[in-house]
Amino acid sequence: MSSQTDPFVRRHIGPRPADQQQMLSTLGYESLDALMQAAIPAGIRQDLDGLPAALSEAEALSTLRELAERNRPGVAMIGLGYHPTITPAVIRRNVLEDPSWYTAYTPYQPEISQGRLEALLNFQTMVADLTGLTTANSSLLDEGTAAGEALTLIRRATKGKDGQPVVIDAGLLPQTQAVIATRAEAMGIELVTADLADGVPDVEAAGIVIAYPRADGRIVDPSPAIEAAHATGGLAVVVADPLALVLLTSPGSLGADVVVGSSQRFGVPMFYGGPHAGFMAVREGLERHLPGRLVGVSVDSAGRPAYRLALQTREQHIRREKATSNICTAQVLLAVAASMYAVYHGPDGLRRIAEHVNAQARALAAGLTAGGVELVSDTFFDTVVAHVPGRAADVVKAAHADGIHLRHVDDDHVGITTAETTTDAHVAQVLAAFGLEQSDATGAASLPQALVRTDEVLQHPVFHEHRSETQMLRYLRKLSDRDYALDRGMIPLGSCTMKLNAAAEMEPISYPGFADLHPFVPAEDAGGMIELVETLESWLATVTGYAGVSIQPNAGSQGELAGLLAIRGYHRSRGDDHRDVCLIPGSAHGTNAASAVMAGMRVVIVKSSERGEVDLDDLRGQCEAHADDLAAIMVTYPSTHGVYEHGIRELCDIVHEHGGQVYVDGANLNALLGHAQPGQFGGDVSHLNLHKTFCIPHGGGGPGVGPVAVAEHLVPFLPSHPLHPVADRREGIGAISAAPYGSAGILPIPYAYIAMMGTDGLTEATSVAVLSANYVAKRLESAFPVLYAGDHGLVAHECILDVRPSVKAAGLSVDDVAKRLIDYGFHAPTMSFPVAGTLMVEPTESEDLGELDRFCDAMLAIRSEIDAVAAGEHPADDNPMANAPHTARELVDWSHGYPIATGCFPSGSTDDKYWPPVGRIDQAYGDRNLACSCPPVEAFA
């Protein structure tokens, strides 16, 4: 069908035209245009222009298929941390391609997140076992950023060593070294790079970061470097390959304090560099220094074990400007896939895979040495580097002609890395590229005998119980059934934009031309992907009004960091090195302050007015006080309170007058797209959340993409990468993520979204998002006052409901409202942000009128229940609110003083009832009794 007869926008937007008119009538407006004219300040309104005409689904998929087919993945034997792998079909179909997994949100409401929390606990247990350390987190973004996070952990955990350098192993992957260098320079940490294979430099260091194995394949015992770090009171960080650790002695048993790496080769496609789940594990005593998220075990209201995020607010919402890490750095969906790969194969299967990888590398080494080719090392796991003086380019070219990608190390060296997918035929092709015949030799042992692993790993029953596909399928189904995701109903989370992730947008990420592409293949072999990226970057520049965009940051937090580093680079280029103050409104998301600290800036808070807007008088005072050292302001627009502030242009002017740059956080771009452009109303830089406005699914807490968009004068300060396929983007402010294009594998999703929506569709989506938020606010204002509003009493795309007066009168809390919504079949809105004790609701444009009304009816019913408690109709300690959520188990032994129907079926419907698998979880108990690996099965008896 053509786009004229089959417009995608009609399926993306939930309310039908007649429903929109009904909603508009409720608000007193005749049209969407009239509503938006009233809501958005005239001074910033600007029509969108410059996008191509909208495509139908069939046309968009045809375009993306053509782009994918222009890529030549070949057989990737480049290595450098990216490996071909086999995603078991049951995991691909039932995790990566299943909306019950990919449309879920971060498990901040643990009672309705037990499935993915268990999967993440499996991931943590897997990583802890393989690394030999006590506690692992539930994923980071990639290996490079995990190593960068290790720097800040060293700084936090080593007392009295401020100013001391960190020693970096020259054997680390080049992209890992590049990300570490970017992070270290921003935070003022001195790095000393040394080849630890030749010994540890004589320097008193805060820490040492060690490669195990090295980028050149060599396996060097990390013990001397670990001992050297400990001798001076420093920490030892080991960067490890988890598949190699199946066969190699664990770093933890050798004394390592921290281990980081990537779980990509555990069944996650290369995706041209991402998304992939990085990891970090720490020894006992360092748990509270872990960045990101940590899943732990607590108990529910019945005393049964239950999973939840441990210490979940310690950085983002409590420490704020004192934070040295950013909790919004996770790859949950990919961590789930990697953990299920271990569940699927078990320890025996992983050992077989690891031994196969090593055997193929040994066969390759034997063939090369038999042909007179010298190897850099005779110890290796999967990577062999051949010394071929002056012939490297010829060998790589010959292999390339036969469909094999090798690594051109330099003029004299070629790197070859084997993988799970490597066959005898591949080995023969590589040897032929060297001009050699295939050898029958299997090769001598290549793992140092002293470093061969002897202990058992993955002994928890979960890694032994699911050997058949039937068992595996049912396990995945059991876990997904415990969760609440968008496939069940609305997730009205303010600031998070949980909207439709259409199947047509998702489908192309599985095309082999995208999924199987190594990030370091020659540019000519990635022509379709590079065109997709450059087109998407240009579209994003167009819709935001900026001059340039970099897609490299692989999370919103990374986009924030990249934007601030661009500002800092700009100031330094002008000799303004002293400009290091970042102004942040008191209502801002906690990630803003954390990112500013990580960019080496000092945070100064700007007050908010009673209307929830930035206090411009306080802003002027702060700008004047810091006229000599002001670097930037970070401001969210519309405001974090969900209001279009009239003063945004004036705010930008004030900051510019005092020499600062304006960072407009793109978290709320879903309220602007098609109607206003940050780059045109005063912004110098913004990050964009593609997992919000542009439909990349949240995946239970990642993947995300946070590209950074900048004005013309900041374009030279966009992220660079030493291995970028575009030569002129290899030098610059440094790498933000491990891969040149970050999580490139999921970029077909926003590409498809923009291509199918077009200018009119994007504009209408924003209008309907604003309509839906105002409709909800209007229906609920008599029960729960809307805390902040702009002109004509209108909000933007979200509203803050003040539940405090009503729950206080009843002796209840906002938590009780959130948990009671579960009984009604809903995920709660954002709780206690940006105002403690309130609920922030964002319905998005994707929810239909029936679902909006269902939510409003539930909230009104809950208000009646609150009033009943306040009136004494229910005891304070035994009422439907305080006991929520109610589980099916309670039906067996009902002990409450109100009817079962009141507690369990408050909406009156028993059809398709969602039952939370656990009761109210005791968060404090879990923090006091930190347990962060799989509990024994007996715990659930």
Describe what you observe in this structure.
- This protein has 941 residues and is an alpha/beta fold.
- It folds into three domains: 77-490, Aspartate Aminotransferase, domain 2 (3-Layer(aba) Sandwich); 527-532 and 548-748, Aspartate Aminotransferase, domain 2, CATH 3.40.640.10; 761-927, Aspartate Aminotransferase, domain 1.
- The chain is 36% helix and 11% strand.
- The strands form seven sheets. The chain has a seven-stranded mixed sheet with strand order 2-8-7-6-5-3-4, sandwiched between helices. Strands 11-12-15-14 form a four-stranded antiparallel sheet, covered by helices on one side. A four-stranded parallel sheet has the order 18-17-19-20, with helices on both faces.
- Strand 17, helix 20 (590-598) and strand 18 (602-606) form a beta-alpha-beta unit.
- Helix 3 packs across helix 23.
- It is globular, with a radius of gyration of 27 Å.
- Mean pLDDT is 94; it is low at 313-318.
- GO terms for molecular function: glycine binding; glycine dehydrogenase (decarboxylating) activity; pyridoxal phosphate binding.
- Pfam families: GcvP2_C, GDC-P.
- This is Glycine dehydrogenase (decarboxylating).
- Its cofactor is pyridoxal 5'-phosphate.
- InterPro entries: GcvP, GDC-P_C, GDC-P_N, GDC_P, PyrdxlP-dep_Trfase, PyrdxlP-dep_Trfase_major, PyrdxlP-dep_Trfase_small.
